[in-house]
Amino acid sequence: MVHRLFKSGLATVIYDDELVDANCGKLFQLEWLHANSGGQKLERGTAVMFQYGGLELVFKQYHRGGLIGRWIAKTYRYCRLKNTRVWREFHMLDATHKLGLPVPRPVAACCTGITPIAYRGAVITERVPGSKNLTEILCEQPLSNELWGKLGTLIARFHTLNVFHADLNTSNILLADKEKFYLVDFDKGEVRTPLSRKDAESNVARLHRSLNKLQGRHPAFCFSEDNWQALTSAYQRAINSD
Questions:
Q1: SUPFAM superfamilies, from UniProt (predicted)?
Q2: How would residue 149 be classed by pLDDT, with cut points 50, 70 and 90?
Q3: How far is CA 15 from CA 29, 85, 160, 184, in A?
Q4: What is the mean pLDDT of residues 63-78?
Q5: How far apart are CA 12 and CA 25, in angstroms?
Q6: Could you give the angle at which helices 145-160 and 225-241 cross, rounded to 10 degrees?
Q7: Section 114-125 average pLDDT
Q8: pLDDT given for residue 45 in this prediction
Q9: CATH class label, 131-241
Q10: 185 a catalytic residue
Q11: Count of C-beta atoms within a 10 Å radius of residue 166
Q12: Max mean pLDDT range (8-12, 72-76, 194-198)
């Protein structure tokens, strides 16, 4: 993999030249995306799926959350290119992919200057085929404790490699072909050497809160404390065997 960089007007694009070429700049144009994704809308928290050059891809535009997001939803303060959220996530995905971890491969990222001190960003990754996120799955059916154990082992694998996921919730966990888990959305994620026990435990606790919240919101949500015990037991075994 070789990362190429080019500028087009106010936009700076980085891309993996094993997957796309410099023409990938058009993939970040909203008109092109709308026309080539079946008319999907760019909304906060919604990824846009499309095909390009024989690849199944996912486009994500950065949106602010919380109260401030009501006023400046897509704009961030610019300092240096390497410090932008989009640049950091692209390289974070690249680093974790090179570690052999199950994450989407980064394809391209774009940072567009709005003013000298503000930017907007977007990232494109390969789509994980045959996958659904954990929120969708658990609203439809339960998972076996064996699968919960596999998820716990996988989270431990990320942690033993010092990978910190800043927002480990059910929407950021994919299950592909009903047997393999992937983690997605590494915005604000980091490789922390070493990853502290406190930070690792905060990841696990964040996931537990996410599951409990959804269980309270959806009466048919398929999650139990027995499932959670299967996950944490497998997690601890994997951590202790490292």
A1: Protein kinase-like (PK-like)
A2: very high
A3: 15, 16, 29, 18
A4: 51
A5: 9
A6: 40
A7: 86
A8: 55
A9: mainly alpha
A10: no
A11: 16
A12: 194-198
What is the SS3 assignment for 201?
helix
Give the tens place of pLDDT for each residue, 18-30: 999 999 999 999 8
- Active-site hit among 16, 17, 94, 167: 167
Model pTM score: 0.90
Q: Find the angle CA(143)-CA(180)-CA(218) to the nearest 5 degrees.
A: 35
Q: Residues, the chain, total?
A: 242
Q: Please count the other Cβ atoms lying within 10 Å of the Cβ belonging to residue 96.
A: 23
Q: 122: part of which helix (H) or strand (E)?
A: strand 118-126
Using an 8 Å Cβ cutoff, are 121 and 62 in contact? Answer: yes
Return the domain boundaries, the chain.
3-126, 131-241
What is the residue type of 153?
T
In this predicted structure, what is the pLDDT of residue 106?
97
Angle, CA 150 vertex, CA 232 and CA 229 arms, to 5°:
25
Within 10 angstroms of residue 194's Cβ, the number of other Cβ atoms is 9
